[in-house]
Each structure stands twice: as C-alpha cells, then as structure tokens.
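User: My collaborator sent over this chain with a note saying "see what the structure looks like." That's all I know about it. Can you take a look?
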Amino acid sequence: MKSQDIKPQDPKDEQLIENKELSIFEALIPILLLIAILAYNVYAYGDSATAGPNQFALIIGGAIAAIVGFLNKVTYQAMMEEIAKNVKSTAGAILILLMVGALSGTWLISGVIPTMIYYGLQILHPAIFLPACLIICSVISIATGSSWTTSATVGIALIGIGSTIGMPLGMVAGAVVSGAYFGDKLSPLSDTTNLAPAMAGTDLFTHIRYMTITTVPTMIITLLLFIFLGLAQTTNGSGDNSATLTSIKDAFTITPWLFLVPGIVIILIIKKTEPLIALLIGTLLGGVFALIFQPELVAKIGGSNHLSFVSGYKGVMNAITVETSVETTNQMLSDLFSAKGMKGMMSTIWLILCAMVFGGVMEAIGALTRITDSLLKLFHTTFGLFASTVASCLALNLTASDQYLAIVVPGKMFAKAYQDKGLAPENLSRTLEDSGTVTSALIPWNTCGAYQSGVLGVSTISYLPYAFFNIISPFMTLLFAAFNIKIKQLTTK
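Assistant: Without extra context I'll predict from the sequence alone. Here is the result:
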C-alpha cells in the first residue's frame, strides 16, 4: 500500500472565502501596513528582527486585517475558525521541524557533520581555489542547513586564505555565498527549506526533489563560471588547512563509517519513506553512532567524565532537545560545532504559527481571494504566474528586508492562484526558494545581505556580481516556466 506524505497544508483542500463587499484597496491595507512594520523592525532591530519583532508584526498585521473584516461584516468567530484551521494544517510541518532540530544535534555529537567537513576541506587546493570554495561551502551548508553558519565559520577561513594567495575577495565571497545558499536551499536541516513547502502546501522531501530540477543546472553553471574565473586568475602562495584538520581530529573520531548515517537517510528519502520516519531514523542512528564513535564526548555533554547508561542517555537526549556545543582548539570550529536541537527550531515554528494567524484572518475576511482574483486578471499564462511570484519575493526582500517574509507572504498569497491554474504546490514552493531565499543575500539592507557582508568583511556590492548561484536561480525558474519544462500539474483522483 502506498504511503501518504505528510502535508503541512494542502491548497487542494482549501477554500478561500469570498467577500464581495471587500475592495482590492481594503484587501491590500493589511499587507501594506505589515510591510511597513517589518521594514521598521529591520531598521530598529537589525539582524535580531527575526527573533521576535517580525513574529509580532504578523500578529499586528492579523489585527489590522481583522479591523478591515469587522468593517466588512465578517464575524470574530469566522476569523478564529480560519486561524484554527490554518494552525491545525501546520501540525505536520511543526513535527518535521522539531525532528530536524533533533537530527542536527545527534549528527553533530556523533561526528557525522564534522566528518563531512573534514573530508570536504581536503579538496582545497590553490589551483582550483574558487570552485573548491563553492564545493566546500555547499557540502558544509547541506550538512548544517545554515548559510549563516557556513559563512561565519569556514567562509571566514576561506576569505583569509584567498587574501593570502592574492585572490580578489569579491570573487571569494561570491563563491562562499553561492555555495552556502545552495546548501541552504537543499538541506532538510534548513529552516527556509522547511518553511517554503509549509507555506505552499507540499511536504519537505517532495519539495527538495522538485527543487533539484532548477537548482542542479544553476549549480552546474555556477561551478563552470568559477572554474573559468579561477583559471583566469594569477595567484601566489598556498593555503594550509592542516591545523584546522588536526583540530577536527582532536575533537572527534573521524571515520568514513559515519557516512553510513546520512547514506541511510538519503536512501530512505529516495525510497519515499514518510519524512517523519526518515528523520526519526536518522536521529536515532546519529545517537547510536555517537555512543560508538564519540563516547567521551557524549559523556561530557551528559555531565560526566565517564560514559555510563545515565551519562550516555543524558548526552544524546541533550543533543536532541537543547543547544549543545563542542569546544576545540580552533575558535572558528568551536563556533561551527554547535547545534540547537529541537529547542532551536522554536523560532521558525513561532514564525509559522504567527503567519498562520495573519493568513487565517486574511482568508476569513476574503482578502486573499480578492487579491488573487485581481492578480489572475493581470496574467493569463503559467509564465505570468511564475513571474509574478518571483517579482513578489524580490519586492518583499527589498521592502520587508527579510527572507522569511519573502517566503511566507507570497506563499500564502499565491497558493490559490497556483491551484486555480492546475499547478502542483511544489511549483510554488520551488519558486519561493528560487527567488525568495537566495536573493536576500544580494540586498545590502536585507538582514541576509548585511549579515554576509559584515561576517565576510566584503561589501555586498563587491560580492554581488560573483554570487552567480543567487543571481541565476530566479532566472532559471522563469526559464523553465517559459518553456514549460518540468512544470508539474495537479493530479485529480
């Protein structure tokens, strides 16, 4: 019997409410005011705007939408019912997010992530420095699920090595950012990779599989461009990462056997195992391998100098549930070797719940139907719908200055439009990532652009021309839409 994927939200089952008394201007008021609040949050809080202020801004946006609803004869009860339905629909996504946090913790203390980093660093060579930067950052970002962590750790080291061998830092930073966001897009550990399918109405692994259709060609083009740039550069000196490799081996037992854990999870994903089951198995395997290969580390995390049943249990459980970190002789690696467990996913879950409040009220008052109907009148082709989605994501990255909102708001707004066009929800989730996630790092005043520039010590304007992956991604998704390549249709049972 074929198993059913967990779907955080299914647009096929969603009926947006119509309200003929609501004008398009009234429907847009909550969105315009929300964008204004979000923009001010970024101005006032900077990078920390996503730690709470933006979540509350969504609540305020929902309250403004409720006022508009009251003025157009929508009851409080109707709004609460839509909010409850929206929150209920995210149950699968929330459970997956919690399990992703658990998996990241056990993969750290077991040495899975450090082993991937260890072998990834060994491919670094001055003759192929730029493509090596791209590949290393891609591997580490996939392993950690975080473009920010990748840039703040290995990215800094690569910038230093690039400076030593005379490589233009804009190019190096462009390779780092491109690789970091490639992994950020495809890793099941990434919050944006979980957020996009939650907003569009598909499941995590369907989204990842479908996203490879545009992401892999983009990555190949990016790699070829960096190979060409690398060959065109004249460098001197060499980069030595032996100290970094030694620090990793001092902190962890490094062995190829640890690749069994991600290998098994990948096989489960390919076999279309339920996401929660695959992630749970990956988490448990990580815990078992931690006890086998890193017993002293597990005991230390468990609060003891010796491994026992109690310290082993506490060590693995702490990695699964709360923040854990592994100290090394290298501060850069100490910053990298940390995981937040299930607790660390609460901020993303918080964002999803607040987005469901805003979206629920907008649905209840008929605003989403009014806006999507107006949008549908502006475009009559599949390409037009994709182009409008890309433009919306870019606009929110420019105005709201936050990649999460560039996924959340268009995701809620365009779900019905894609359904009306007979398009599967993974078309929307892929487009959200191809345009919302990656372009955030190209805008200087966006939290992502400001963060990457500050951490790498290279201005956004300097690395922007070389962040090929981030630049090409939205054009690739539009190219596939224009020629109707791999555009999945809704299937009717």
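A starting point for your reply to your collaborator: Residues 21 and 72 are 6 Å apart (CA to CA).
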